[in-house]
Design a protein that fits this description.
CATH class: Alpha Beta
Protein name: RNA-binding protein
Order of helices and strands: HHEEHHE
Distance between the termini: 42 Å
Oligomer: single chain
CATH architecture: 2-Layer Sandwich
Helix content: 55-70%
Pfam family, one: DciA
Low-confidence stretches: none
CATH topology: GMP Synthetase, Chain A, domain 3
Structural class: alpha+beta
Length: 98
């Protein structure tokens, strides 16, 4: 990482440079997706969510309730749009409910 005069850089710029240099964005995105899923879907759905995995542009969500899985499958497009809006970027292109 290049050394720069830190007096002229904001903390957010320094952190962004660190993340970019160390290629940490993918891992941070995976953590962010989990946080956003739990926050946006609420405690009722969180209770039935057993695993969340972001792989490439596909979000895999494992649910312990087949009824809930079926119900959520009707709104996949809305769920993807909501999650991407909260993440601030188009990170998820496909949602797979298991």
């Amino acid at each position: 990482m290049k050394k720069r005069n830190s007096e002229n850089q904001s903390l957010s710029e320094v952190l962004k440079e660190f993340v970019d240099h160390n290629k940490l964005q993918g891992g941070l995105d995976k953590v962010s997706v989990k946080d956003v899923w739990y926050r946006e879907m609420g405690p009722a759905i969180e209770k039935y969510t057993t695993a969340i995995k972001l792989q490439n542009e596909t979000l895999f969500v494992q649910l312990s309730s087949s009824v809930l899985r079926e119900e959520l499958s009707y709104g996949k497009g809305k769920i993807i749009a909501m999650l991407n809006r909260e993440l601030g970027k188009d990170l998820i292109k496909k949602l797979v409910l298991r």
